[in-house]
Records
---
Amino acid sequence: MARNCLTLESVRHSLIRQEDSIIFGLIERAHFPINFPTYSQSYVSNSLHTFSGPLLRFVVKETEALLAKAGRYANPEEHPFFPEDLPPSVVPPHNFEKFLHPPAASININKDIWDTYINKLLQLFVTPGDDGNYASTAASDLLCLQALSRRIHYGKLVAEVKFRESPQEYEPAIRAKDRDTLMKLLTFEKVEEAVMKRVAKKAMMFGQEVTLNKDGNDGKYKVDPSVVSRLYGDWIMPLTKHVEVEYLLRRLD
Ligand SMILES: O=C(O)C(=O)C[C@]1(C(=O)O)C=C[C@@H](O)C=C1
């Protein structure tokens, strides 16, 4: 859909679709135990001294460098975790429609997303242990981080649509830099409740063992549906709303 035709219904529809990518990402990651060395400061240090630090950082940084050359970050819906020193794109530029308000478009909270994912979320949906599959673990973390980042930063589009639909409602709070009022204005509790129920249901459907005999999967899922619901309620939606508030605060700049 052309950006300028976006409505609250269509951006919500995109958020619903993105739930699938996030839940599949979580299921893939939950296939491995925590594998702490993936995040250890000292795991990667090679004799060439080309890189040192956590393996996950290495994998994300190198992947982003490659994707930047392929033009990924020219798309306003994509946000790199390591925006410093990205190489230029080698592909012809695409004329992405400018839908966001330019002074607010550059918000990037990937640092918070990274810290939250590593320090809070992972422990909730992966088992303890170490199976040595650190590179595969980092590759599945990368997919989760990208899906989460895309969803959370989608809050910019949601905020823009809300602002365009009723600017008079938002302008006084933006001028007063009143974060609490903005947060109240953009919060729809009923929608949040529906999101939490739907993601739990999707986690049940996507995460069940599919067999050819009649036995059910004994209520066992690849990722706990109640945890998925909690990840959304406690972190994913609050971070999305944080992006919405930050965006609106710059909407009249
Ligand atoms: O649907 C909206 O209105 C949004 O702003 C998105 C979202 C979410 O993150 O899913 C965030 C805030 C609302 O309270 C409801 C849902």
Note: Strands lie at 44-45, 52-53.
---
Amino acid sequence: MLWRHYLVVFGGMRSGQLVVFGGASPSSNRFPYLIAGISPPTSLSTIDFQIWYHMCKAGRGQCGRALHSLESRWEMVSITAVARLVHLNSSIKRSNPNLLSTTKPLFTLKSSSPVSVNSSIAMSYDDQLIAAKKAASLAARLCQKVQKGLLQSDVQSKSDKSPVTVADYGSQVLVSFVLQRELPSQAFSLVAEEDSRDLRKEESQETLRRITKLVNDTIANDGTYNVSPLSEADVLTIIDCGTSEGGSNGQHWVLDPIDGTKGFLRGDQYAIALGLLDEGKVVLGVLACPNLPLESIRSQDQHALNKAGCLFSAQLSCGTYMESLDGSPPVKVHVSDTEDPEEASFFESYEAAHSSHSLSGAIAKKLGVKAPPVRIDSQAKYGALSRGDAAIYLRFPNKGYREKIWDHAAGYIVIAEAGGVASDAGGKPLDFSKGRYLDLDTGIIVTNRKLMPALLKAVQDSLKEQALPSL
Ligand SMILES: Nc1ncnc2c1ncn2[C@@H]1O[C@H](COP(=O)(O)OS(=O)(=O)O)[C@@H](OP(=O)(O)O)[C@H]1O
Ligand SMILES: [Mg+2]
């Protein structure tokens, strides 16, 4: 283990209270923090839990982020923590990586009720998040290559879906491949949009050949995985890893390999959307949005808008982060905090067939929104909303349309961890535990917590008016 890449915290339960004995980010004065508490442990057997925070890259940003997630986890188990972080630049010595604690109490931790410390605190999805980011980034590279060729091709017409097919399947193969390579010891279940049925047909041989080449080229160019090229049979098998039914037990990955197919064809927005369910709840999500500008889409600066390619990532209780697909450091993002609908703008589907533009218009008007709708494809809407590009997202498909979990899982947690809330049109949280579909019969609305009550009322009033027979 590379000690310098970890923040270590030790603690236990004493008289019903959670006590942090101490901890250190060891061995390097680049991590000059010590967390220490009361009752230094006399032996390892008194330690009930240890939390190791994996930090991918050494640096203070990562340390701050790890500490943030630490605080969030304490909140998660209903513990109020009053922490003093002590700057110990000079006292952490390289030779003393196991600096555990000081004798002075620097922490007060109160537990309002008995808590299951071990189970709650130990739950970390850091490894899965790293794997998910890697998988979505690689898939994005494949999609970018295909979209570039598609846009440059003279013969390409919008009705020709074949490049999309190649990119859809290729993206699904790469995500499935990377997750299994990166997490070899974990059971693998994937709920994904594509299956191999059509590809196994005689007339699809050329398409399968193209997908296989694309996937192998992308893996070879990346250089991380020293594997012999995948065969066409391997590709078919890997695609069919995505046929899981999901559900409320265990962990399931949820993937839309290209969300926003129509946007992809137009050269507009699309996303590679990957989430992880644990016991029916979304616990992490990654959205790779190759065409989304790194700056707010409301920016007036054309030069800034030309720089595109965002990767959003969120893990339960750890916040939402955005980085560039080229690998800039992640920055924490937050939804717009406006309470004033007059200041708010709203997102909706680009395609009118996917969401009623007239209903969203009526809701926005009732709420007092002045700005015209911003129409973009795919879950890029959730990503852009998580950093405050707009304050509201409204989605009202035709009656009878069944929403799939892969169209919302990643976006749902990206929004929730950025301080927003996504619900059905009645205000109920989305339920991802029911299999491949969301059980909804209204629509999906997303905004910040302050605006949600007013939005819900406007939605309910508009739906009632719509249901009335016109006079
Ligand atoms: N009829 C209908 N009603 C509602 N929704 C539908 C419908 N048909 C498709 N879809 C799903 O919409 C996904 C595209 O996302 P958006 O609707 O947000 O984007 S946009 O319409 O492209 O602007 C799109 O995702 P992809 O199929 O991955 O592109 C579909 O899952
Ligand atoms: Mg989709």
Note: The CA atoms of residues 212 and 235 lie 6 Å apart.
---
Amino acid sequence: IVRDLCEVCAEVCPDAIMGIITNPVNSTVPIAEEVYKRKNAFNENKINIFGVTSLDIVRANTFVSELKGLDVDKINVPVIGGHSGVTIIPLLSQATPAVSFPQEERKKLTERIQNAGTEVVEAKAGAGSATLSMAFAAARFAYKMLDALNGADNRVECAYVRSTETPAAYFATPLLLGKNGVEKNLGIPKTIEYEAQLIENAMPELQSNIKKGIEFMSK
Ligand SMILES: NC(=O)C1=CN([C@@H]2O[C@H](COP(=O)(O)OP(=O)(O)OC[C@H]3O[C@@H](n4cnc5c(N)ncnc54)[C@H](O)[C@@H]3O)[C@@H](O)[C@H]2O)C=CC1
Ligand SMILES: O=C([O-])CC(=O)C(=O)O
């Protein structure tokens, strides 16, 4: 589905900002860019295709607010990496306002955030996924992007894009959005040792997901 939609977009609106929320996001974003390359619509100096991973941030913010009794609208936990299992990397150490966790709680919360999508898919047993939460996350991403395109300052969101931050060719990090889509990739925030290990652990899975997307297009 993503491939077919992108074939048309590459022809009729190659410069449009595209947010892809369809799973597997880790592979559908590389698929989209491969389509653009084939259609000569790919601009290596510009990023206009985004994997929407905002739901991971929404979940991290929600779980931290519940645990710590904070207002969810005032919390921001950056979540980097990809959008499945171990590739989802919540940086709880970089939450604002700062929150502290004993290591065991940090580990449990990290794993809950990583498995939250699967938890809902399993609970719905064949009837889809976290559909409404996904819509909320998509709207959060779209509104931030639209505000930035309209000239608003300081619109930052983590999204999964082509990246040189790690050995993986795609990686979500906080992005400063602006009139051209990505104004600046803000890179990987500071991490504690546990989080640096999560990034390292995510690499094989993430790189294999990216390879799968690219290979899907070379068949
Ligand atoms: N990135 C994220 O945060 C999240 C992503 N997702 C992903 O979003 C997607 C949709 O999830 P749900 O809405 O829960 O699934 P769903 O199963 O409720 O809806 C899928 C829809 O796609 C339609 N469809 C199937 N084949 C089609 C085709 N060839 N052309 C056009 N439409 C077709 C179906 O009729 C159905 O209405 C899935 O890929 C899911 O994994 C879901 C939750 C979060
Ligand atoms: O696997 C799925 O479709 C669920 C998913 O991405 C999520 O809820 O974050």
Note: DSSP finds six helices and seven strands in the chain.
---
Amino acid sequence: MDYIVIKCGGSIIDQLSPDFYKNVIELQKQKQVQPIIVHGGGPMISTRLKQMNVATTFVDGLRVTTKEVLDVVEMVLSGSVNKQMVRALLQQGGQAMGLSGIDGYLLHAKPITDINKYGFVGEVEHVNVTFLKNIIAHDYIPIISPIAIGEQNQRYNINADLAAAAIAQALHANLCFISDIPGILVDKNGQKHPLHETTKKQIESLIASNIIYGGMIPKVQAALTALEQGAPCVAILDGMKTNSLTDFIAGKQVGTSIQLEEVSHVY
Ligand SMILES: Nc1ncnc2c1ncn2[C@@H]1O[C@H](COP(=O)(O)OP(=O)(O)O)[C@@H](O)[C@H]1O
Ligand SMILES: CC(=O)N[C@@H](CCC(=O)OP(=O)(O)O)C(=O)O
């Protein structure tokens, strides 16, 4: 069985069209590649924290997560955002199963190296693949929020891109990041254009020159880690283009395809 991990960013979730969900359902029905959705919700968390007068900061694209912030992160991600996506898929006739990484010990995490710097931010150590495959075998499309569980049942906030990459690695699945941009943008003749493809070397230089910044940094890092650890194909796709997901699966050139090294094309 082949799987595809579809990561939906918080920047695009509210704008995903009914056709996006229909395409995901169609994929599942055809049984060639089984979809697994992992979602973010960064902007929704920030809005809720602001309403609650709780300050929030990011270091290296990761939200510094105090106990107080963690409560809100879990409430927003595993509550409202997760159920919003489950309802959207149900609405189009799909069988959706909303889960967080805590349910069934789906995502086991340890704190990332510097707990003083980031608070309760984790990195995924283990994915309960058996549990995930069982859900899929029962014809459900898993919709996963990136809260994980660790030693002593401690909760951790996981960047959604990194959670999606960990799941793709564990399943050797293709991975796509659905976001609010048409791909990795670079300046060409004073205008921004998406790269059709890029490599580890180019990504490192784009980060060093601040052309890749903010939330794009964990995304490209997650993409490279997934490729290094066994995901065959990884791309960043435009959530505003309805067919970008089906085009990616069909092997068409769409969004930015990320590779470890340059592939020499033979024509
Ligand atoms: N070179 C780049 N090309 C495109 N977007 C970039 C680039 N560098 C930084 N970004 C920012 O990354 C954002 C996407 O990351 P993020 O907001 O975390 O999205 P998501 O919600 O999909 O996870 C874009 O909206 C853009 O502001
Ligand atoms: C540690 C960390 O930064 N966690 C993220 C989790 C949500 C997320 O990643 O959402 P997007 O995909 O919309 O960015 C956060 O708290 O915002």
Note: The CA atoms of residues 104 and 131 lie 7 Å apart.
